[in-house]
Fold this protein.
Amino acid sequence: TGGIAEHSPEVRARVSDHFAFLGVTLDEDRNQANPVDADLSGVGATVPVLIVHAREELAIARNAFRVAAR
């Protein structure tokens, strides 16, 4: 979900609620802590709920290096 859910515990919680029927549960304390690269799965979750920092600047830098190295 890019920067939207990456930086918003409220958005993550609201989106996760819509997928509860699939076994998605969110640990509210970990979600509110707004971690980077963490497992936010709640008790009884049957699928992992992960938050992963996008690191777009790293991907851009790698691509720029490849082009410049040609």
Observations:
- The beta strands are 38-39, 50-51.
- The first helix runs from residue 2 to 6.
- The helical segments are 2-6, 9-17, 28-32, 56-68.
